[in-house]
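Section 5: illustrative case.
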């Protein structure tokens, strides 16, 4: 049985081009026209590979690497082997990511899973839908009446674009994802199985629970990425909004009327209750829970597995359950540990 390789390098990068991307000069005597053809971890890289290093855990791997060129932060530069070209820079991982995208552009966003161009056989596009030139629609996808999809976008197999939805240019909608009641900007990536625009959880509670119609929308701005099996509910009476450049991991729940600012990061397992606002550049670690009707201020960071039940001031770092400023949280943990240790010493010994 053959062993397929899913990501094969699409180009070569000269060492001069790597140095230009890094914004640093090549060491003296290095041929700028020599090229690398791939990228690999330190322990697997060979003479034709690009690697990077910025974590002390991999010091031994750096010292033994056979990589042709390594992007390395200053504190580890002395451990680069003589046979490896070292480019010393402040943020090697970010430069590595950009170069990896040049070597493997097909890995930057989902493409057609059928190898299709245009509308594939077995896709269902309503006559009243409008597709610009260069849209790809895989088999089994359904595009409803009045939907509009911009040039360069890819709609994966089994995906649903509901009536009246708007999908901008150069977007990728993954397999079996669904969009209803949604307006989406350009260069948005929606991974497989995501659900965007379905009912929010709204009921008037009583002896019997009366359903509250959810009549808002979901607005997804440019350059957002939404992970697999994430759900974003449409607004109840106003819009649920995801701001420009925000990155959302897999298995995240975003409830109705939530407003997420620009360039936020929301890691897997997060749940955000209704009508909460995340201002710009907020980071929520994995499995954070946020109750409804709160504001998490600009640039704040919430540690993984924390539960937020009150407003968070801008620029804060909070953690714990209930979440609090990290210094108070650490003091609390230290005090509890000391009390537990003291209690153990005080117990009678058999």
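Designed sequence:
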């Amino acid at each position: 049985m053959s062993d397929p390789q899913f990501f094969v390098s699409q180009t070569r990068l000269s060492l001069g081009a790597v140095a230009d991307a890094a914004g640093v000069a090549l060491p003296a005597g290095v041929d700028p026209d020599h090229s690398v053809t791939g990228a690999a971890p330190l322990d697997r890289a060979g003479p034709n590979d690009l690697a990077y290093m910025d974590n002390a855990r991999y010091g031994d791997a750096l010292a033994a690497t056979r990589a042709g060129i390594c992007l390395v932060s200053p504190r580890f530069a002395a451990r680069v082997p003589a046979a490896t070209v070292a480019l010393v820079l402040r943020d090697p991982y970010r430069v590595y990511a950009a170069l990896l995208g040049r070597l493997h552009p097909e890995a930057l966003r989902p493409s057609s899973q059928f190898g299709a161009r245009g509308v594939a056989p077995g896709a269902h596009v309503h006559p009243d839908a409008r597709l610009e030139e260069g849209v790809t629609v895989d088999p089994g996808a359904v595009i409803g009446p009045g939907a509009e999809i911009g040039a360069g976008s890819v709609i994966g197999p089994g995906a649903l674009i509901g009536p009246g939805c708007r999908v901008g240019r150069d977007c990728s909608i993954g397999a079996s994802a669904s969009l209803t009641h949604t307006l989406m900007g350009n260069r948005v990536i929606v991974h497989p199985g995501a659900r965007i625009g379905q009912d929010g959880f709204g009921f008037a509670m009583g002896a019997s629970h009366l359903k509250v119609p959810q009549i808002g929308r979901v607005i997804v701005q440019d350059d957002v990425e939404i992970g697999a099996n994430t759900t974003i509910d449409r607004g109840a009476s106003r819009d649920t909004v995801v701001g420009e450049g925000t990155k959302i991991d897999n298995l995240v729940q975003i409830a109705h009327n939530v407003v997420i600012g620009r360039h936020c990061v929301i890691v897997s397992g997060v749940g955000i209750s209704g009508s909460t606002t995340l201002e710009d550049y907020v980071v929520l670690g994995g499995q954070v829970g946020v109750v409804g009707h709160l504001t998490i201020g600009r640039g704040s960071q919430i540690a993984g597995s924390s539960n937020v039940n009150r407003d968070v001031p801008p620029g804060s770092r909070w953690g714990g359950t209930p979440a609090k400023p990290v210094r108070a949280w650490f003091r609390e943990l230290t005090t509890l540990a000391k009390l537990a240790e003291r209690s153990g010493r005080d117990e009678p010994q058999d």
